[in-house]
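Work Package 3 (structural annotation) set out to generate three-dimensional models for the target panel prioritized at the project kickoff. During this period the team completed the workflow that converts sequence records into C-alpha coordinates, so that structures can be stored uniformly alongside our sequence database. As a representative example, we reproduce one entry of 179 residues exactly as it appears in the project archive.
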Amino acid sequence: MMREPPSRIYFVKFIPRKYAQNPMKSDIVLRNVSEADLPVFYEQQLDPAATQMAAFPSRDRDSFMAHWKNKVMNNDTNIVSTILFENQVAGNIVSWEQDGEREVGYWLGREYWGKGIASQALTEFLGIVKTRPLVAHVAKHNIASQRVLQKCGFTISGTARYLDLEGGDVEEIVLTLRE
Protein backbone atom coordinates (compact mmCIF):
# COMPACT_ATOMS: atom_id res chain seq x y z
CA MET A 1 0.00 0.00 0.00
CA MET A 2 1.38 3.43 -0.97
CA ARG A 3 1.51 6.18 1.53
CA GLU A 4 0.67 9.72 0.60
CA PRO A 5 3.51 12.16 1.02
CA PRO A 6 3.17 14.33 4.06
CA SER A 7 1.52 17.66 3.44
CA ARG A 8 3.95 20.48 3.18
CA ILE A 9 4.20 22.80 6.12
CA TYR A 10 5.86 26.15 5.66
CA PHE A 11 7.25 28.06 8.56
CA VAL A 12 7.52 31.81 8.36
CA LYS A 13 9.92 33.24 10.83
CA PHE A 14 8.74 36.49 12.39
CA ILE A 15 11.51 39.05 12.66
CA PRO A 16 10.78 41.92 15.03
CA ARG A 17 11.18 45.29 13.35
CA LYS A 18 14.11 46.30 15.48
CA TYR A 19 16.11 43.38 14.06
CA ALA A 20 15.07 43.77 10.43
CA GLN A 21 17.80 44.80 7.98
CA ASN A 22 15.98 47.91 6.76
CA PRO A 23 14.15 50.09 9.26
CA MET A 24 10.56 51.11 8.71
CA LYS A 25 9.76 54.76 8.15
CA SER A 26 8.49 55.17 11.69
CA ASP A 27 11.89 54.17 13.12
CA ILE A 28 13.52 57.33 11.70
CA VAL A 29 12.85 60.74 13.21
CA LEU A 30 14.43 64.07 12.32
CA ARG A 31 14.41 66.75 15.00
CA ASN A 32 16.23 69.97 15.75
CA VAL A 33 19.79 69.54 16.96
CA SER A 34 20.32 70.23 20.64
CA GLU A 35 23.61 70.81 22.42
CA ALA A 36 23.06 67.47 24.15
CA ASP A 37 23.52 65.78 20.73
CA LEU A 38 26.97 67.25 20.16
CA PRO A 39 28.95 64.77 22.32
CA VAL A 40 27.45 61.90 20.26
CA PHE A 41 28.29 63.67 16.99
CA TYR A 42 31.79 64.30 18.32
CA GLU A 43 32.37 60.62 19.12
CA GLN A 44 30.98 59.57 15.72
CA GLN A 45 33.41 61.81 13.84
CA LEU A 46 36.36 60.29 15.71
CA ASP A 47 35.80 56.90 14.07
CA PRO A 48 38.77 56.29 11.72
CA ALA A 49 36.65 54.22 9.32
CA ALA A 50 34.12 57.05 9.06
CA THR A 51 36.71 59.76 8.51
CA GLN A 52 38.39 57.63 5.84
CA MET A 53 35.06 56.96 4.13
CA ALA A 54 34.11 60.65 4.19
CA ALA A 55 37.65 61.81 3.36
CA PHE A 56 37.17 64.36 6.10
CA PRO A 57 39.42 64.61 9.16
CA SER A 58 38.11 64.52 12.70
CA ARG A 59 38.45 67.58 14.92
CA ASP A 60 39.62 67.82 18.51
CA ARG A 61 36.82 68.29 21.04
CA ASP A 62 37.13 72.07 21.48
CA SER A 63 37.34 72.74 17.74
CA PHE A 64 34.42 70.41 17.05
CA MET A 65 32.17 71.98 19.69
CA ALA A 66 33.07 75.53 18.61
CA HIS A 67 32.39 74.68 14.95
CA TRP A 68 28.96 73.22 15.72
CA LYS A 69 27.89 75.90 18.20
CA ASN A 70 29.24 78.94 16.30
CA LYS A 71 29.08 78.00 12.62
CA VAL A 72 26.50 75.25 12.23
CA MET A 73 23.83 75.89 14.87
CA ASN A 74 24.08 79.70 14.95
CA ASN A 75 23.79 80.31 11.21
CA ASP A 76 20.20 81.12 10.26
CA THR A 77 20.73 79.95 6.67
CA ASN A 78 21.66 76.43 7.82
CA ILE A 79 19.04 73.72 8.13
CA VAL A 80 20.25 71.23 10.72
CA SER A 81 18.63 68.03 12.02
CA THR A 82 19.52 65.20 14.34
CA ILE A 83 18.72 61.76 12.93
CA LEU A 84 17.12 59.50 15.51
CA PHE A 85 16.79 55.75 15.01
CA GLU A 86 14.75 53.92 17.63
CA ASN A 87 15.05 57.04 19.83
CA GLN A 88 18.87 56.97 19.68
CA VAL A 89 21.01 59.66 18.08
CA ALA A 90 22.20 58.00 14.86
CA GLY A 91 23.78 61.07 13.28
CA ASN A 92 23.01 64.40 11.69
CA ILE A 93 21.97 65.88 8.38
CA VAL A 94 22.72 69.47 7.39
CA SER A 95 22.08 71.86 4.52
CA TRP A 96 24.03 75.09 4.08
CA GLU A 97 24.85 77.73 1.49
CA GLN A 98 28.32 77.71 -0.04
CA ASP A 99 29.58 79.55 -3.10
CA GLY A 100 26.04 80.47 -4.13
CA GLU A 101 24.73 76.90 -3.93
CA ARG A 102 22.59 75.07 -1.38
CA GLU A 103 24.47 71.95 -0.25
CA VAL A 104 23.56 68.91 1.81
CA GLY A 105 25.64 66.53 3.91
CA TYR A 106 25.07 63.89 6.54
CA TRP A 107 27.02 61.80 9.03
CA LEU A 108 25.93 58.56 10.65
CA GLY A 109 27.62 56.60 13.38
CA ARG A 110 29.12 53.42 11.93
CA GLU A 111 26.74 51.17 13.88
CA TYR A 112 23.92 52.68 11.79
CA TRP A 113 25.50 52.07 8.37
CA GLY A 114 23.89 49.66 5.91
CA LYS A 115 20.40 49.77 7.45
CA GLY A 116 18.68 52.22 5.11
CA ILE A 117 18.78 54.97 7.73
CA ALA A 118 20.68 57.49 5.60
CA SER A 119 18.31 57.00 2.66
CA GLN A 120 15.23 57.43 4.83
CA ALA A 121 16.65 60.43 6.68
CA LEU A 122 17.65 62.13 3.41
CA THR A 123 14.22 61.44 1.92
CA GLU A 124 12.57 63.09 4.93
CA PHE A 125 15.06 65.97 4.91
CA LEU A 126 14.33 66.69 1.24
CA GLY A 127 10.76 67.40 2.31
CA ILE A 128 12.13 70.14 4.59
CA VAL A 129 14.78 71.59 2.27
CA LYS A 130 12.85 72.78 -0.77
CA THR A 131 15.66 74.66 -2.56
CA ARG A 132 16.67 73.21 -5.90
CA PRO A 133 19.16 72.57 -7.21
CA LEU A 134 20.61 70.92 -4.12
CA VAL A 135 24.23 69.78 -4.31
CA ALA A 136 26.22 67.09 -2.49
CA HIS A 137 29.97 66.38 -2.64
CA VAL A 138 31.00 62.79 -1.92
CA ALA A 139 34.46 61.21 -1.84
CA LYS A 140 34.83 59.14 -5.00
CA HIS A 141 35.52 55.95 -2.99
CA ASN A 142 32.37 56.41 -0.86
CA ILE A 143 30.09 54.33 -3.08
CA ALA A 144 27.51 53.78 -0.31
CA SER A 145 26.89 57.50 0.09
CA GLN A 146 26.69 57.97 -3.66
CA ARG A 147 24.00 55.26 -3.76
CA VAL A 148 22.04 56.95 -0.96
CA LEU A 149 21.99 60.20 -2.90
CA GLN A 150 21.06 58.51 -6.16
CA LYS A 151 18.19 56.62 -4.47
CA CYS A 152 16.88 60.03 -3.42
CA GLY A 153 16.97 61.44 -6.96
CA PHE A 154 20.42 63.04 -7.13
CA THR A 155 22.38 62.57 -10.35
CA ILE A 156 26.10 62.84 -10.97
CA SER A 157 26.82 66.31 -12.28
CA GLY A 158 30.60 66.44 -12.15
CA THR A 159 33.79 65.83 -10.22
CA ALA A 160 35.99 68.01 -8.06
CA ARG A 161 39.36 67.77 -6.34
CA TYR A 162 40.73 69.36 -3.23
CA LEU A 163 43.69 69.03 -0.89
CA ASP A 164 42.82 67.70 2.52
CA LEU A 165 44.37 69.13 5.70
CA GLU A 166 47.31 66.76 5.38
CA GLY A 167 48.00 67.77 1.76
CA GLY A 168 46.46 64.64 0.24
CA ASP A 169 44.56 64.88 -3.02
CA VAL A 170 40.87 64.00 -2.63
CA GLU A 171 38.64 63.34 -5.63
CA GLU A 172 34.93 63.97 -5.17
CA ILE A 173 31.83 63.13 -7.10
CA VAL A 174 29.37 66.04 -7.29
CA LEU A 175 25.71 65.03 -7.28
CA THR A 176 22.79 67.38 -7.86
CA LEU A 177 19.07 67.17 -7.16
CA ARG A 178 17.33 69.35 -9.72
CA GLU A 179 13.62 68.80 -9.03
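The two ends are 71 Å apart (CA to CA).
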